[in-house]
Every structure is written in structure tokens, then in C-alpha cells.
Amino acid sequence: MTDYKKTIAQNIKIDGVSESEIYSLVCYPTDAAMGDYSLPCFKFAKVLRKSPVQIAAELSESFNKSNAGLNAEAVSGYVNFRLDRAAFVKETIEKCFSRGEEFAPAESNGKTVCIDYSSINIAKPFHIGHLLTTVIGGSLYRIFKFLGYNVVGINHLGDWGTQFGKLISAYKRWGNDDDIDKRGINALLELYVKFHEEAEKDERLNEEGRYWFKKIEDGDKEALGIFSHFKEVTLRDVDKIYKRLGIEFDSYNGESFYNDKLADVINELEEKGLLTESDGAKVVNLDEYSMPPCLILKSDGASLYATRDLAAAKYRKKTYNFDKSLYVVAYQQNLHFAQVFKVLQLMGYDWAKDCVHVPFGMVSLENAGALSTRKGNVVFLKDVLDTAVEKTAKIIDEKNPTLKDKEKTADAVGVGAVVFGALSTSRIKDMVFSYDKALNFDGETAPYIQYTHARCRSILNKSSSDFSGRTNYEALCDDESYAVIKLLSRFDEIVLSAADKYEPSIIARYLIDLSQSFNKFYISHKVVGDKARTALTYCVKNTLKNGLYLILIGAPDAM
């Protein structure tokens, strides 16, 4: 597709203003009647010492002399640009057809991005609180792959700490292998909760937990064997959730993986004069950067999250030679990552600038109350997905009881509703999930987009699939058709923007806009039997399907 923003930027000449600056200012008018692109001139007033209205008039006049293929018009301090509709329609439709039903990813750009996401804790449930990191990271994985990156998905497992000694203590006292193998994480959670209930009555249990964790640290065969079993059970259970969500990983190296790499980090910090002592602990002073000290070793010599994240960052750079390393972790860790990245910079690693914290808000379920693993008050993600699928199945039974593959469709719609609920708004916002809102077929939801995709498929089933030969593109120059085509043309730009901002919600919002625009077109025009409009429907169907894929959502052919 022609980059018309670039065309505009190349043909607008302003002394003291670069082409890239002009490009960044070109936008889409909120009112389609104003044109296809718009350039606000207010920022040029200081440079040119003229009013925005005068600047817009002069720029539009000079632009129209450039024969750039667009028509410029000055309106209230803006230069509005209009494309040749017929030519643009032809170009867009032909580009969509060339991509086929499955949009191929871009050729490799030779760059690598590491994405650290989900990062579940061993022997703890995969609950609703893990939803955002998992689906944001999973979507970014697909987005960057689509753009031609080599992507490394990393599940930085929480598999180190005193809690595992406590769990072994609980297992030795009250657990049995048959129950754990049968019920998995549910059985481990009950043991964990029981331990804390009993420890409130008998403090000696906490000491016993510390004793068993020390045995793990010392490499005791029995302790490691029990813990390895817990890890296998956990990964077996969570893998079922990952498969339902379409999530994949290339590495499960967690906290324990870096145990033998911590000494090198500490020695390097010592050698570079970065470590200082504070109340017996070892820290990197960050006063100069308006941050509290970064704690590296506690007074008892124990390492911390920062120590392990420094070791992990060095390992990932050495192993993958990343161009970007993303950490999809809640916003409560903003300070932690700011400290870690600053320490890496002070260690002399210029690639510290390529490490990026991708923060997100909190997620909760309507009427779920506060979550606490210790007290057993958790909302399992599996239960949320199952409930959404069950509710979807009931809706399908009411609306389309003869639908084929009802179970498969209910799963795609139910799971998709949960995922879209997490990805449809800016990731930094807190999210309260509502089944009723998420499963609304008429609202700005996944079912609405999926239903639009299914409507497109139904239209195509009733129409000839032969699009060969001459197509009358001028039949798609009316306002409703043209609005759809403009959105189709922006797909790649939207995906690039989502990657640049680490924001899958940009794609989710785009798919809602495309669905709404197509449905308006469908209501306004007879489609079945019209070759040009059927071709447009084909393009919309494919774009919706591929866009949904990038945000981890399936596209049923019928609903």
C-alpha cells in the first residue's frame, strides 16, 4: 500500500521543520466529510510567524501544484487531503486479495525481541490475576512475529523461596501423591492454605518450612524430588490453560535457573565499585537518580528479585542477543524495573536502554472480593473460562440451536470474550471483568466482532467466490463502502502502532471500528449478487480473522 502520509510529508515544505516531524503530525480527520488525511498547522505558527489559517492556505496551494495525487484544502488552520477514491479503492482491494485468507508475516528483519510474561508461581493456582500479563504478552508475541521479528517467549517461573519449604512441610504432614496427581494445583493449594492456618496456631511450623527450603538450597535429593514433582504437576495443569488461550513459550527458565549465575553478578558489581553496605545489606546507591537504593543482598546474604533479574538480563542478552527485551509485569513493579535497568546501565551495558517494562493494571472479577492465595480465596482462570463458555453455549442454544460444532464455537466465543475483555482497553487501566458485558453480541465485544466475521462468511457462502475478471471498483466509492476500505488500508499501520506502543488494545479497537463500519455498509447496500461488494466482504472477513488471531481470539465461520 502507498504510504500517503509519507507522500504528504514529502510534498509539504516548511523551513525549519523536518519531513519526519510533518509525517508525525499527519492524522485522520474525526469527521470523514473533512477528507482522508489532515495536517494541523498550529505548531508551525511560531516557526513561520504567521497564523495557522494563513499557513494552511499557503501550504494547500503549494501542495496542489506538486501533482502528488491528492487534493489539498485549507479549513480553519488545517490542511485536509482527499484521495482519488476509485484509485484508492482499487489499490486497497487488490492488496487485500494478494494477501489471501491467511496474512503471511513480514520477511525476517533480523531483529530479536524477548518477551517475559505470565511468569506463574509453581504450586500456586493460575488465577484471574494472571490474565493480563498472560494475554498481553501472548498477543505481543504474535504481533512481533507477524512483523518479522525473531520472538523469544519467556515464562520466568516463580520457583524459588521459603514458600516451597513450607509446602514440602505441609506435604510431608498431610499430603499424598495420588491426590496431588489427580487434583493437581487444587490439592497443592489446599496444602498451602492448611499450612498457614496451622502455622497461626503453632509458630514452629514456619521454622520447619525454613528447614525444608534450606534443604532445597543445599541440593537435598528428597527435597528436590518432592519439589520437582510439584513443578511437573503445576506445568501440566497450566499448560491446559495456555493451550486454550493460544499461548506459547520458548523458555521456562525461572528464578531457580539463575542460582549459579548470581555470584558473577555480585562479583561484577563489587569489581565496578557499585556495591555499598547498608545496615549489613549490599545495595547499589541510586540517590543521584532520585531512586531508593537497589537491594542486591539481604543482611543474611540472601539474594533478591533484583539480583536475579540482573542475572536474567545478562543471560538473555548473551543467549539471544536481543534488540528489545520486554517485561510484561504489573505497574506496581515500576520502581523495581527502573532500578534494575539503571543498575545495568551503571554496569556499563549500553543495551540496558533496550530493556522495557510493559506495565499493566489490576484485574478482578465482579463481586469476587479480595484475592489471597494463603487464605484460599482465589478465582481460578480455568473457572472463569469455563463459566464464559457455559454462558455462551446457553446463548447459542437460544439463538441458533441447530448450529453445527456448537461446542467448538462456544469455546471460541467464550474464551475470546474473556481475552478481549482483557485486551480491549489500555493495558494500564484496572479491569473489572463482567460476564454479561463481555458476552454481549451487540456491544463492543469479541462476540460482536466474531459475529461480524461469521456474517461475512455467510454472505460469501451465498455468493459466487469467483472474483476473477474485471471488477467495477467505482461501485465501492459511496461513503459507506469507502469508510470500510479506508479502515482495511490501515491494518498494517495499526499492527505497527500496537507493536511500537506495546498495546494490543489498538488492534482490538480497530477490529471494533471495522466491524461497525462493515455492518453499516451491509445495512445500507445489497451485497449478495454484487461482485464488487462481495469482494469487499471477502477482504473484511480475512482482515477480521487475522486481526483476531493477533489478539489470541478465534474466528468461527458460523454463530
Major sheet characteristics: 4 strands, parallel
Query: How many H/I helical runs?
Result: 22
Distance between the termini: 33 Å
CATH superfamily of the domain at 112-258 and 309-364: HUPs
Helix content: 40-55%
CATH topology name of the domain at 112-258 and 309-364: Rossmann fold
Structural class: alpha/beta
Low-confidence stretches: 370-376
The amount of beta strand, in percent, is: 5-15%
Q: Order of strands in the sheet with the most strands?
A: 5-4-9-10
Number of strands: 12
Radius of gyration from the CA trace?
28 Å
* Overall geometric form: globular
CATH architectural designation of the domain at 112-258 and 309-364:
3-Layer(aba) Sandwich
CATH class of the domain at 112-258 and 309-364: Alpha Beta
Would you tell me the overall average pLDDT? 93
Description:
- With 559 residues, this protein is of the alpha/beta class.
- Among the domains are: 4-83, Arginyl tRNA synthetase N-terminal domain (Gyrase A, domain 2, 2-Layer Sandwich), CATH 3.30.1360.70; 112-258 and 309-364, 3-Layer(aba) Sandwich (Rossmann fold), CATH 3.40.50.
- It is 53% helix and 9% strand.
- The chain contains 22 helices and 12 strands.
- The chain has helices spanning 4-11, 19-25, 45-48, 52-64, 85-99, 131-146, 162-174, 177-183, 185-201, 204-217, 221-245, 262-271, 305-320, 334-346, 381-399, 406-423, 435-438, 446-461, 479-489, 491-500, 505-524, 531-550, and strands at 37-40, 70-75, 78-83, 112-116, 150-154, 275-278, 281-284, 294-297, 324-328, 355-358, 363-365, 431-433.
- It has a 4-stranded parallel sheet with strand order 5-4-9-10, sandwiched between helices. The chain has a 3-stranded antiparallel sheet with strand order 1-3-2.
- Strand 9, helix 14 and strand 10 (355-358) form a beta-alpha-beta unit.
- The protein starts with a helix and ends in a 9-residue tail after the last helix.
